[in-house]
Structures are given as C-alpha cells and as structure tokens.
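Severity: low
Component: inverse-folding endpoint
Summary: output formatting inconsistent between runs
Steps to reproduce: submit the following structure tokens with default settings.
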C-alpha cells in the first residue's frame, strides 16, 4: 500500500533540505584543507526523493511539481570501511546528503577512472575484442558500456537529467534520460522521462526509440563497494586531479564540498558541521520508488497518554452504567 505524503509535508522537507545545503555552501567557501579525506572512503547508503515546486517552470508544458532526488553517503576510515556492511563502518564516520545529479556526475568520473585502470591491467594494447573478453571474465562488464559500444550512447552524459537525441522521432515528443531511485532507495537506475526534470516516466520504451536497451535500467549504477578518496597512483587519466597539490580524489572533494553534513561521529575535522543531522535522522526510506516517510509518523507520548486516560474513563463509565442497571433491576424485583 502506497504511503501518502501531504503537499505541506513535502514542501517543508524540501525547504529544510535546501536550507542546510545553502548554509553549508556559504561555510565551505572559506574551506579548510581537506587532505584528511585521502584516508577515507565513500560508502553509498541510499537515495530517496521528495516533491517540490519547480521554480524554473516558465512554460505551460513545464512540470510545476518536480521530483528532487537526494543521495545519502558515509565517509568511513578506509582501513575500517567494509563493502559487506550496509553502513560501511560503525565509528569515526561522517554522514552526508546531497542532490543526486551532482553526486552522480562525480561518480561517473570514478567509474571512468576505475574502468581505465581495469583496461590497463588487461594489457590489451587497444584490442577491443581482448578488452571485451578480459573485462567480462573479470566481472567488470559495466566498463564495456563506457566504451561507447551502445551506438554512441555515452552513459556519462546521462548521470544527470539530460535530453535524449532520438533519430526519426515520429511522435514528435521530447525524451530525457536520467538517474532515479529504485529498490526502496537501495539502488540507482537510469530511466526514460518526458520532462527536463526527469519527474514523469515515459510510456514509450527506450529500446523502441533507440534500438538497444537502456544501460543500467535494471542494474544499479552504484555498487556496495567502498570508494577510496585517495588518488590512484597511476592517475594519468585525470590531469586535473593529478595536477592539484593534495592526494584527494577530485570526486570526493566535490562530494564533500556540496553535501549537507552530519559530522558528530567524525574526529578528523576540527570544526564538525552538523547542519544536516536533524534532516538525516528524520528521513526513512520505505518505498520501492524511493519516496520518503518522515519522522512525524513516530508515536506521540502526549497522544498516547490521552488515549490511555480516555480508555480508563470509558471503562469507568461502562462500570457505572452496569452498576446503575444492576441496582435498578434489584429495585424492580423488590416491588414485584
């Protein structure tokens, strides 16, 4: 049964989310050195989405209520981060939340970097068939999607909601591809949409439009692995990352700078930022499509007390009615 969330609840959650994101950005404009990130790894915890007013809507065809997707992740000490644990680690961590588009664009850089490392390990010297066999045997089929094998469909261009270029589009409709939450917020898939906010799923199938299946339509883009924030030793594939002074992966810097933070359990920062703690504590991912239920559904102690008192008063009233009827019955029998 679907969980219903009122518009007021959705708008209040959206307002809270935007509030702490904007606040942390102002704080991080004067950011301290983040070299400590090199000793941490990112663990994906889940995603969810909320509905909010679309401020960019300026045409009749634009959606007024858009879907805002958010990703929650944890920074764990690399030495204790476990891919087999759902939360990665249980101490010395920080929890974070950020918009999915920004998270996924940075994650695509990690995917490209890792796939190039796998290709280098294959030592195929540019042989496509060798790469295919090597990567498939090693269980890295996802890297084949990044080699433009899908008729020029570059997955990294759709890590955010982006317009799909459809050849011979007979229906004249515009289509968009972007990431969305799946499996109760435990996975991120690519989907086909009819609007530029990727809020409304398309009835048409991607395969009918493009002639091949949509990558990651059924398989999660995000895996359970801990992603190290330390730059790879052979980081010749990302000149911008290797050229900076620190040893921190550029994607981790982007994630950290743009996320709402809850660092109550993080000892590596001198001034922990806890602006997002209340928000992270309040969300509950309970829907297959990733919609959230807020902490407002928790039982109220005051309400519980009133219910108990009402039940006791009702029981006392029932006893009194029974007592009066019994007394009345005795008097009637006496008169007879």
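Observed output (run 2 of 3):
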């Amino acid at each position: 049964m679907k969980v219903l969330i009122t518009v007021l609840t959705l708008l209040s959650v959206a307002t809270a989310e935007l509030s702490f994101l904007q606040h942390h950005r102002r704080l991080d404009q004067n950011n301290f050195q983040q070299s400590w990130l090199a000793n941490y790894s990112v663990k994906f915890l889940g995603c969810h989405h909320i509905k909010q007013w679309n401020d960019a809507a300026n045409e009749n065809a634009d959606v007024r209520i858009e879907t805002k997707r958010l990703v929650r992740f944890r920074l764990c000490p690399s030495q204790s981060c476990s891919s087999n644990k759902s939360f990665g680690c249980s101490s010395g961590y920080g929890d974070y939340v950020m918009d999915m588009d920004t998270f996924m664009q940075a994650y695509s850089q990690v995917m490209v970097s890792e796939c190039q490392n796998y290709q280098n390990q294959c030592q195929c010297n540019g042989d496509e068939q060798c790469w295919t066999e090597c990567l498939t045997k090693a269980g890295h089929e996802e890297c084949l999607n990044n080699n433009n094998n899908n008729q020029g469909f570059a997955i990294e261009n759709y890590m955010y909601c982006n317009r799909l270029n459809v050849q011979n589009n007979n229906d004249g409709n515009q289509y968009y591809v972007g990431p969305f939450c799946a499996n109760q917020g435990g996975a991120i898939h690519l989907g086909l949409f009819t609007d530029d906010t990727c809020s409304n799923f398309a009835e048409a199938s991607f395969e009918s439009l493009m002639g091949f299946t949509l990558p990651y339509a059924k398989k999660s883009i995000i895996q359970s692995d801990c992603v190290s924030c330390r730059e790879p030793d052979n980081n010749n594939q990302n000149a911008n990352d290797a050229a900076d002074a620190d040893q921190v992966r550029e994607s981790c810097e982007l994630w950290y700078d743009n996320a709402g933070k809850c660092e109550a359990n993080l000892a590596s920062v001198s001034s922990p930022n806890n602006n997002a703690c209340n928000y992270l504590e309040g969300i509950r991912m309970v829907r297959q499509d990733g919609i959230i239920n807020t902490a407002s559904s928790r039982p109220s102690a005051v309400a519980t007390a009133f219910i108990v008192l009402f039940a006791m008063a009702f029981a006392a009233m029932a006893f009194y009615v029974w007592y009066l009827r019994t007394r009345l019955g005795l008097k009637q029998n006496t008169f007879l």
